[in-house]
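Subject: sequence -> structure tokens, single chain

Hey, anyone have a minute? Need the predicted structure for the following. Not urgent.
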Amino acid sequence: NIGGFSKAVTYSISDTATAIAGAGATALNEAVNITATTAATVAQATTIDSATNNGSNSYSLSDTSANLAAAASTVGNGASTITAIDSATVAQATAIEGFTNSGVNTYNISDTSANLAASSNAVLTLAGTVTASNAATAVEATNIGGFSKAVTYSISDTATAVAGAGATALN
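Reply:
Had a minute. Here:
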């Protein structure tokens, strides 16, 4: 336990996110720099971010979309890259993109056809893949089909509504 020495010791920490998150607060607080060599979960990054060390902290995030979207802004902003290990909703993807982290954000989107239709190119084009989790109405399909990002969806509506839908909705 370096933090327990009576003589000042200058050190930085570079280890896995799991090991760093499991280290004592004194060891983290007295370090100069803290570097996670593996991707951290939001909980692990919160521990790293909470350290009062006098240098910099370096970590990437990899967690569920729900955990990433709910992360404190200091945790998300402090990450280099952010990776969702499951599909995000439009709202979660918007929250993830709201962070000012230094690297790229990687996620797929899966949400209801209503939420996708109400979304925007700005959100959808940043995702890897985009999939509707239910069948879209003809009106929703027209909105979804108008995005520059390819979206996987099906249509379920009246025969009249589907027949009246334009090529954008049906392609």
